[in-house]
Design a protein that fits this description.
Order of helices and strands of chain A: HEEEHEEE
Radius of gyration of chain B: 21 Å
Strand content of chain A: 25-35%
CATH class of chain A: Mainly Beta
Strand order of the largest sheet of chain B: 1-2-3-4-5-6-7-8-9
Number of helices of chain B: 2
Strand content of chain B: 25-35%
Helix content of chain B: 10-25%
Order of helices and strands of chain B: HEHEEEEEEEEEE
Structural class of chain B: alpha+beta
Distance between the termini of chain A: 53 Å
Number of strands of chain A: 6
Number of domains of chain A: 1
Strand order of the largest sheet of chain A: 1-2-3-5-4
CATH architecture of chain A: Beta Barrel
Number of helices of chain A: 2
Oligomer: heterodimer
Radius of gyration of chain A: 18 Å
Shape of chain B: globular
Largest sheet of chain B: 9 strands, mixed, barrel
Number of domains of chain B: 1
């Protein structure tokens, strides 16, 4: 009987968890924000995620490259993004949550585009359009 | 006077099939439907709470062990491998609600087609053919669905889901799993999909949950081809992210 009750309890807890499209974000440190000021080397409008590749020198001036994960095109377009929002050579400022174990990796929180617009990473994450 | 009567009759004839399906026509579910946020004015359309998922003891134990491992990994900042992280489609019934992605329903007399935006999943509901015996259906992600109208409700019976396909809440399932869905318009723009999963091998009793959808009249479905998946599973079964160096 106890086991049955535990099963039901476990199930009730499980039911509250939404299905993630691709993966969880536990690999990123959501409690920490890092600001990157740099130059876009590519903007990939793709599934399951879009990416901003950016050269953002460290404070010492040393070169450093980052791969920044975003939502999918479907999610991002709801926040004002388009496939043409960024291009190689654009100067941008990104606020990201760094990857916990992969240096140079991160998840976008917000981006200041060359035209001054600040976009988040889809509905409910960062500033909205 | 006649004009007024005509207008009222016309309005009822137009609206009733959408809402009640009582004029001899079936409701038209065609359109794009997104997850309904059942708050404010939409609170009355909130779906009933999901029923408990009760597995037979021999399945409950490994299921709970896996859940515990996932929670432990998450505490370490890691995620255990999932099909989704490897861009493997979710199949029926999970594809009906992937995060905030919409589904599109195309209703024709002989076939109703449902397209999930996430992973571009497609399922076909045959309206003019009886269901096949489960032993005649090649196991797959979408199985075989046969549908009929029960008054204003579209009833869809699905069998033939491959046991390896991601189950509801990650539940295991056998080739004997049967999914019965009841689609019903609560208003012209609100749709409920009540999903009942039966599996005499794995489940102690059927589990039922309901998804609420809101119509997205102007939405254009976005393509979703998973050709840039930078997440991969390492030798320990952990999801990792590829970082480019330039």
């Amino acid at each position: 009987m106890k086991s049955r009750l535990l099963n039901v309890l476990a199930a009730a807890i499980a039911v509250a968890i939404p299905v993630l499209a691709h993966h969880s974000f536990t690999m990123f440190d959501m409690s920490k924000k890092v600001t990157l000021v740099g130059t876009v080397t590519s903007f990939e409008w793709s599934n399951p995620h879009c990416y901003i590749e950016i050269d953002a020198p460290e404070e010492s001036g040393a070169a450093k490259h980052w791969s920044i994960e975003m939502g999918s095109p479907s999610i991002l377009q709801q926040g004002g993004w388009k496939f043409s929002s960024l291009k190689k050579g654009d100067k941008v400022t990104l606020v990201i949550n760094p990857h916990k174990s992969e240096p140079g990796g991160g998840f976008l929180f917000s981006a200041t585009l060359p035209d001054g617009r600040v976009l988040g990473n889809g509905p409910g994450r960062g500033p909205q359009k | 006077m006649y004009k007024k009567v005509f207008c009222v009759t016309f309005a009822l004839a137009t609206l009733l099939p959408f809402v009640f399906g009582q004029s001899g026509k079936t409701p038209d579910l065609t359109g794009v439907w997104g997850p309904l946020r059942a708050t404010g004015a939409n609170a009355k359309f909130a779906p009933p709470a999901a029923g408990p998922l009760v597995l037979k003891p021999e399945y409950a134990k490994p299921y709970e062990a896996r859940r515990a491992m996932e929670a432990e990994a998450s505490k370490r900042g890691e995620q255990l491998a999932t099909g989704g992280a490897q861009c493997i489609p979710y199949g029926v019934p999970t594809m009906m609600r992937i995060a905030s992605y919409p589904v599109e329903i195309l209703q024709m007399p002989k076939q109703i087609t449902i397209i999930g935006e996430a992973f571009s999943e497609v399922r076909r509901v045959f309206m003019d053919k009886p269901q096949a015996p489960v032993e005649d259906v090649a196991p797959g992600y979408y199985g075989r669905s046969a549908g009929h109208w029960d008054g204003d409700t579209l009833v869809v019976d699905t069998i033939g889901i491959k046991p390896s396909v991601n189950g509801y809440q990650g539940m295991p399932h056998s080739e004997k799993m049967r999914i019965t869905e009841r689609f019903r318009l609560l208003s012209p723009d609100v749709l409920h999909d009540q999903i009942t999963i039966e599996d005499p091998v794995v489940l102690e009793k059927p589990v039922t949950y309901t998804l609420a959808f809101g119509r997205l009249p102007d939405y254009e479905m976005v393509e979703f081809v998973c050709d840039n998946n930078r997440e991969y599973v390492d030798e320990k079964g952990i999801v990792r992210m590829k970082i480019k160096d330039k």
